[in-house]
């Protein structure tokens, strides 16, 4: 049976990249699909032209080409990432971490109830948090650029999700500020202090998960999601 | 079959069923198997198959295994425990649906 050569496989990778498939994991699956289909044609007639068969098989993906495949994969990986965050967040509702949560909520409520001076302290903490988020994002960006280089330019979708979600969740730091204006006008002050304290604590935990806990487990998570990484290393 | 809308909702059930019978399969193999089983009547389009597979994987019903085949990597899909359970309930659901449709398309004459 006639098989594809190494150069032809490389051409298929290039073809997927030309059709906007940025992630190596998605490229790999599509390359195997196209290669299998082309080899099937060769079983019937080994003289058929590789490029013609490639175009013929690509047409079967419909007018949007690989776009739907990539979009669905992104959504699936986003879901996977959120599940990881959710799992870690639930840990904070269990012993002993729940004590830290309770302490933070109490501390922020207490500070906010002190009005002026408490406000200054809480405000300063939030400004520090914003600085931390920016610092983490820059660190993230550098680390993933370095990893990409190390892997010969390959980008894995879930890894990209770490970066994108970091950005999304990072934006949450602004959220307590937004709520501040709403809550302050609608709730009696004591309640407002507790709600605001809960929001700040929640954003702290979220950032801790996204910027500390998950990145520490990143390689392990990626290897589980992409068994091919092990094969690549061999 | 020209009207792909008719089976679109059942695509993930078909995938789960095939994986239950064949242990592990890769994308292209699934398209070919469906073609073979339905004698070409049902043609799973590539643009629909992979999104469905990725969705099932994200839902925790499938797990993946990679193998080096010739000079490339191949991604195999397998059912997880949750996937095996899901398969049973989706097949039952599909069977009920087929019965219902049959009842509409081909109603039994009533005795009354």
TrEMBL record, chain A:
- Give the residue spans that cross the bilayer: 95-113, 119-140, 161-179, 191-211
What does the UniProt keyword field contain?
Membrane, Transmembrane, Transmembrane helix
Output this protein's name. Answer: Uncharacterized protein
Organism for this UniProt entry: Mesonia phycicola
Lineage, broadest ranks: Bacteria, Pseudomonadati, Bacteroidota, Flavobacteriia, Flavobacteriales
UniProtKB/TrEMBL annotation, chain B:
Annotated InterPro entries: Metal_resp_DNA-bind_regulator (IPR052509), Tscrpt_reg_PadR_N (IPR005149), WH-like_DNA-bd_sf (IPR036388), WH_DNA-bd_sf (IPR036390)
The Transcription regulator PadR N-terminal domain extends over 15-86
Tell me which domain of life the UniProt entry assigns to the organism this sequence originates from. Answer: Bacteria
UniProt cross-references to Pfam families, sorted A to Z:
PadR
Instruction: Specify the protein name.
Output: Transcriptional regulator PadR-like family protein
Species of origin reads Mesonia phycicola
